[in-house]
Amino acid sequence: MRFYESETKKLLAKHGIGVPKSGVARTAADAERIAGELGAPVVLKAQMLAYGKARSDTVRTAATPADAAKAIRALRSEEHTSELQSLRHLVCRLLLE
Fold first, then answer.
1. For the chain, what is the radius of gyration of the CA atoms?
2. For residue 88, how many C-alpha atoms fall within 13 Å in the half-sphere facing its CB?
3. What is the 3-class SS of the chain, one letter each residue?
């Protein structure tokens, strides 16, 4: 069974285990709003099933809510040489912490 990090954190919280405040963004507007609610700076992490492969190129930091919106746009537009397609086809949501 595989879970996205955001799903795992929800499950842990449900059982009383402390997890950082976070939110899931699907759009740049979501990212900006959530970053404002959490209080910048935030870390944006692409939520995709990586099958045990860590990808540091799918993590960004944002100092302001506007930077969070820029970061989600950048993650979705970048081409990655290790993949056959761009992240915009793989990343449908990002976890902000």
1. 13
2. 8
3. CCCCHHHHHHHHHHCCCCCCCCEEECCHHHHHHHHHHHCCCEEEEECCCCCCCCCHHHEEEECCHHHHHHHHHHHHHCCCCCCCCCHHHCCCCEEEC
Q: In what order do the strands lie in the sheet with 59-62?
A: 23-25, 94-96, 42-46, 59-62
Distances (CA, A) of 74 to 2, 11, 19, 49: 26, 29, 27, 20
Q: Which pLDDT tens digit goes with each residue over 28-78?
A: 898 899 899 988 788 888 776 655 545 566 788 889 999 999 988 887 776
User: What does each C-alpha distance from 84 to 73, 87, 88 come to in angstroms?
Assistant: 19, 9, 12
